[in-house]
From TrEMBL:
InterPro entries: C-type_lectin-like, C-type_lectin-like/link_sf, C-type_lectin_CS, CTDL_fold, PMP22/EMP/MP20/Claudin. Keywords: Disulfide bond, Membrane, Transmembrane, Transmembrane helix. Residues 19-103 form the C-type lectin domain. It is a multi-pass membrane protein. The keyword Disulfide bond applies. Its main location: membrane. This is PGCA-like protein. It is found in: Membrane. It comes from Mya arenaria (Soft-shell clam). It holds the Pfam family Lectin_C.
Length: 324
């Protein structure tokens, strides 16, 4: 191919051989199936997946009982090339040790220049070495950070500083008043300061402070934060290759679905809070109150969860293309 026909090329690391868009490495030290999979994973690859007869022939040529595999005694769940029988497939116990082949995608090389000797001066695409899912992980972690602060801070709704309002501010779990007396409280108790919503101080106000829609908001944000943390832990294990590579695609796609669900829950909460803030039956003088920065952080978290859902889905799709 002429030099000027290259927009970009792909190369394999030293010691690896390229075929049909994949790089292959033959490791001669015998290992069990689990040990081999772990070795390949640690080197950014996976045990070879043979997808067609051309790849099978290529591997057979590189390595220079017709009724194999047969799962003898139902105890042979792994397969290997059987050398004495012209490299046909043979099933074996996964605890047996054999040499093995790792497979991975080649690195993308771009910005190549033409020289007298051919392609020269190539530079790696700055994104090619970046682990797939990096942007998804960033979006997920940042969304958790924002929602965690919003979850714990009492600044979802605030009263303007210059307003003559007995209500000061509130969050999901804390309310603040300035010498407020509840009209249904026959004891005439006045509330001054900030208190946890379930504290004894607010017992006379609890039904007023926590209508069903507000409890729904508390539940949705709590469930969202739980889903975020759990999915982040699992995705992190997959990202750092602490789990088998074949699970990575499944985990990323599952994380994308969880992120999408979290996005829906966050935006339902935001809509409810935005509408009910104007309810005169809830906080006094709603015209003097406004949605504050905790509400804004929850909104930011929702958008980043949406970005994370798309990024994880894209990473899962790319991983599928690389493997197959």
């Amino acid at each position: 191919m002429a030099c000027d026909e290259y927009n970009s090329i792909e190369i394999c690391p030293d010691g690896w051989v390229r075929f049909q868009g994949s790089c292959y490495f033959l490791h001669h030290d015998p290992k069990t199936f689990t040990e081999a999979e772990h070795y390949c994973t640690q080197h950014g690859s996976h045990l070879v997946h043979v997808n067609n007869i051309f790849e099978n022939k290529f591997l057979k040529d590189r390595l220079t009982h017709q009724r194999q595999p047969n799962d003898d005694s139902h105890a042979q769940d792994c397969v290997h090339f059987y050398v004495p029988n012209e490299f046909t497939w043979n099933d074996y116990q996964c605890s047996s040790q054999f040499p093995f082949i790792c497979e991975k995608r080649p690195a993308d090389i771009e910005n190549c220049q033409c020289g007298s000797s051919g392609i020269v001066g190539c530079e790696s695409d700055k994104f090619s070495k970046m682990e797939k899912g990096t942007y998804a992980m960033f979006c997920l972690c940042f969304a958790i950070f924002c929602l965690l602060i919003a979850f714990a801070s009492p600044y979802w709704v605030e009263s303007f500083e210059k307003s003559d309002n007995k209500f000061v501010k509130c969050g999901l779990w804390e309310f603040c008043f300035n010498d407020y007396s509840f009209w249904k409280d026959y004891n005439g108790k006045r509330f001054l300061g900030c208190w946890y919503i379930f504290s004894d101080q607010y017992r006379p106000l609890w039904e007023w402070l926590s209508p069903p829609w507000f409890i729904g908001c508390q539940v949705m944000i709590s469930v969202t934060l739980l889903f975020q943390v759990v999915s982040c832990v699992v995705a992190t294990l997959a990202y750092w290759r602490c789990l088998p590579m074949y699970l990575k695609e499944i985990i990323y796609m599952g994380t994308a679905l969880v992120a999408l669900l979290c996005t829906v829950l966050i935006f339902i909460t935001l809509i409810l809070m935005g509408i009910k803030k104007e309810d005169r039956g809830w906080m006094p003088r709603p015209d003097q109150n406004y949605l504050s920065w905790s509400y804004g952080l929850a909104c930011i978290s929702g958008w980043f969860m949406l970005f994370a859902a798309g990024a994880f889905a894209k990473a899962a799709s790319d991983d599928t293309k690389e493997r197959y």
